[in-house]
Design brief:
- This protein has a domain of 110 residues: K homology (KH) domain (GMP Synthetase, Chain A, domain 3, 2-Layer Sandwich).
- Helices cover 31% and strands 26% of the residues.
- The chain has four helices and six strands, in the order E-H-E-E-E-H-E-E-H-H.
- The strands form two sheets. A three-stranded mixed β-sheet has the order 1-6-5, with helices on one face. Strands 2-3-4 form a three-stranded antiparallel β-sheet, with no helix packed on it.
- The two termini are 31 Å apart.
Length: 185
């Protein structure tokens, strides 16, 4: 299993305006609801439709479609992130949500929260039509750099990042085996 590296660059000054706040009361209510119903499983649903070539539109709830494409080197039109880049984007967003929520619960005011993600992937198998010799498919290593500023010590911010990484649903989806069924409809 590839190891995910997360590091933080932190500042404990509040020279900047705080990030748009999260409702502390809303977080407390959300946490209490979760504690009262610890075994609730929610199924998330999306629908992906190929528009043509490698451009796909993914529909989530009632939102505008999320576009996925491939870069020219992989025969796409380069109109949107490719699927692997989207995975990194999802991981970055999930970690950011967790860091911000936990900062709010801990009374830490953040003025900066930026994540840079980088992942190593062998693409020579190109969807099962390229080099089909035995190899690891998917990311082998992912590195996340968290640039974080707020009214906390380095140790508190390091703990905040580590805690959020531990409890991130997307990070855990990447770290742990997942049951998956892919079949013709």
């Amino acid at each position: 299993m590839a190891e995910t590296t997360i590091s933080a660059s932190v500042s404990s000054t509040l020279d900047q305006a705080p990030l748009r706040p999260i409702s502390h009361e809303g977080l407390v209510n959300l946490a209490e609801t979760a504690k009262a119903n610890p075994n609730v499983i929610k199924s998330l649903k999306v629908k992906t439709v190929c528009e043509g070539q490698f451009r796909n539109l993914t529909y989530v709830r009632d939102l505008e479609p999320h576009v996925i494409d491939e870069p020219p080197g992989l025969l796409g039109e380069d109109t949107a992130p490719n699927p692997s880049e989207a995975v990194l984007a999802c991981l970055g967003s999930c970690l950011s949500v967790g860091i911000h929520a936990n900062a709010t619960m801990r009374g830490i005011t953040l003025t900066k929260l930026e994540l840079e993600l980088e992942g190593d992937i062998n693409i020579t198998g190109v969807w099962g039509i390229g080099d089909l010799s035995e190899k690891r498919l998917g990311f082998t290593d992912i590195r996340v750099k968290v640039d974080l500023e707020g009214n906390a010590t380095r140790a508190e911010l390091d703990d905040l990042v580590a805690h959020s990484n531990t409890w991130s649903p997307v990070a855990n989806t990447l770290r742990l085996p997942v049951n998956m069924d892919v079949s013709l409809a």
